């Protein structure tokens, strides 16, 4: 067997999302992957590409893609789901590795460390076309394009937020002190990161573009035009004034360059910045993640109401009950996107019945 997603399904996905981006859809986007279909062939010997395995550069990229193809062939795509490959397997903020940070895998997770300790005034981040991690990502993307020829949407890697990348090279309290002591130097490095970020975005997209059926990031939102899930997890540690000075201008510049963009609002510590985000006219939406140990999405009605009232789209990921609660709280079902849910194939009948409540199969 092969991946079960014919071309006409892709056309349906494109039409649905075009309406959603244009605020013409009257229902939420609800993707569900059903796991347990027989792939029709033995499992390949190569390991699954994850953060735990991405550092083994001895594995041929075609072998890794063959294993990923086997995994996708074992799924059915219900509701608004489509076959996609999440390239977050190189860790959050992999751009740091592209510009010289040391990539380390500990307990199955990717971490980035500065190659040397340098003060902010001596920190200069530059482009290296022969960087081993950039080449590996491009080689994998090229192998995926050859293998799937447009049947699978390959995401951009999790490049990271600009201050997040800088904080890799100025860890701990160093960057926080730099914001006060060397603001001009921080702004200089941020501009370097901004230009490099968009260069990596363009170059990796160009590797995929001949056949990739669209654009997506680790969040699985589909677009037929360039977009990204922007973020700045570092902003958890700064106030709104610092956000306005060091984060918001770069975010707005990235939104303008991309054309479409969401923001990854991660944890209550970022809620003080929500007003700045909602005031950005070209920012399309906000993905609110309450964070570990916090109540799920249904318990944050004021957050979702503020996002919806500003005319922004919403991404959530806490399941059907939370989705129904957020629809009731906001009264804006057509602005909501639920991240991909997975379930065993044995639950197919019940899940399809649930999807029919949203006008889906």
Topology:
Blueprint: H1 7-21, E1 31-35, H2 61-73, E2 75-79, E3 84-85, H3 95-98, E4 102-106, E5 109-113, H4 132-148, E6 153-154, H5 162-169, H6 174-181, H7 183-208, E7 227-231, H8 240-258, E8 260-266, H9 274-278, E9 285-289, H10 301-309, E10 313-316, H11 320-330, E11 336-338, E12 341-344, H12 348-356
Parallel strand pairs: 1-12, 3-6, 7-8, 8-9, 9-10, 10-11
Antiparallel strand pairs: 1-2, 4-5
Description of the molecule:
It contains twelve helices and twelve strands. 40% of the residues lie in helices and 14% in strands. The strands form four sheets. The protein has a five-stranded parallel sheet. Strands 2-1-12 form a three-stranded mixed sheet. The chain has 361 residues and is of the alpha/beta class. The chain has one domain: TIM Barrel. Helix 9 links the parallel strand 8 and strand 9. The radius of gyration is 20 Å and the shape is globular.
Strand content: 5-15%
Succession of helices and strands: HEHEEHEEHEHHHEHEHEHEHEEH
Rg estimate, integer Å? 20 Å
Rounded to the nearest angstrom, the distance between the terminal CA atoms is 23 Å
The CATH topology name reads TIM Barrel
CATH class: Alpha Beta
Could you say what the CATH architecture is?
Alpha-Beta Barrel
Strand order, largest beta sheet: 7-8-9-10-11
Q: How many structurally independent domains?
A: 1
